[in-house]
Give the backbone structure.
Amino acid sequence: MAVIGIFDSGSGGLSVYRELVKLLPAERYIYYSDAANCPYGEKSALFIRRRARFITEFLLDKGADVIVVACNTATAAAISELRAQYPDVPFVGMEPAVKPAALGTKSGVIGVLATAGTLRASKYLNTRGLYEGDVRVVEHVGQGFVELVENGVLDGPEAENTVRASLQPLLDEGADVIVLGCTHYPFLRPLIERIAGPGVEVIDPAPAVARQTLRILEKHGAPVGEGPFSVELHSSGNPEALKRIFDLC
Ligand code: DGL
């Protein structure tokens, strides 16, 4: 069995975990939620890099064969440094799925929902630059989305008002594809789809990230598929929030 370490600022990375488990059901999973420091969205890159290093050490001590940075914000801030600091460790990161959105749009406008940290990072700006011109890219921070998910508020008037406030501007611009550029947001997907309506496609990159993790494990010769399955949840903050979302996965 391979040991798969996963981390995020909070419970959002569980949207990646649930895709990993579908593809790799016989591995050992160690999930770390940095709930004490959530959200990462407005934190400095320096702060996120320090946390990413600390959590990487924790996961390596637990025997991780691969580390999935299941957080777009942490990937943007820290994955290059992590790869340089731990050259023997395979890292898999997240990035807003601009490419499939650009290929899928009919209106020529794609909407990206992500944190402020992701949207200002050079990693994202470079990717966006590759497709801008062919399509128009409009963006919005999912203001308050992370807090909704951490509080387990995935539906109802409060969730609906919060989601609509950030999503509607993208729909008003004509976006017919919405990219979920933060791993917390897939837990709000039913609500996002309901507000956006049937003509709008919503893209969650987690299944692609799970496939990439499998490829990397195979490339590194990790003993994939031998079992037994197990999962450990760790949190630097309130473990209840993590458990609540885990129970939905
Ligand atoms: N889940 C994270 C992401 O994918 C971070 C959200 C946050 O802590 O602001 O960007």
The mean pLDDT is 97.
